[in-house]
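Form 12-C: Joint structure prediction
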Amino acid sequence: AQSVTQLDSQVPVFEEAPVELRCNYSSSVSVYLFWYVQYPNQGLQLLLKYLSGSTLVKGINGFEAEFNKSQTSFHLRKPSVHISDTAEYFCAVRDMDSNYQLIWGAGTKLIIKP
Amino acid sequence: GAGVSQTPSNKVTEKGKYVELRCDPISGHTALYWYRQSLGQGPEFLIYFQGTGAADDSGLPNDRFFAVRPEGSVSTLKIQRTERGDSAVYLCASSLWTGGDLTGELFFGEGSRLTVL
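Section 2 - Result
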């Protein structure tokens, strides 16, 4: 069965520094990949998604992610973070092995230090 | 409102009691999902509705959990004989469905935090 691993439960980073949030999934079958963000006291919202085509996907708020099939990874990056990026970020995968339901990682809290 | 609405936002109950959690999806969204999120974990799938029918209820943990969507809009998640282990945030999401489209975005509510004492 599909599983999603977000190795870092928290990532502290200084404001204006770059950041990478890691996501690995277990199954190598054809997948759809998503990153969602949850700001404090708000619901989850879609940041970006990979369906097919270019492996570099751009999302909202300056975030991007790169799909790497050989490493079964979908890491999220931003070249320069702001205080407003403080949130929890969730990686999710959808594939036929999971009956096309979204399988979620445990989340990574991005902590921006001034 | 424009987004997914969930009520109550917080519910504290005693072990053994019955609880109902309500979800009002975005108007026109035919797909509706319930997830459960425990502390330090990602959302865990419970059940998915397409219209009025439960298309996939494989995530419901046991027969104490039940969900309905009688008119294809508002949904209620019902938990009988609550246990302390049921304490979690229950998330509802909705999406447009265009027949076989698995790529659609889910729109989430803010969740209902259930605490079972």
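Section 3 - Comments
The radius of gyration of chain A is 14 Å. The mean pLDDT of chain A is 92.
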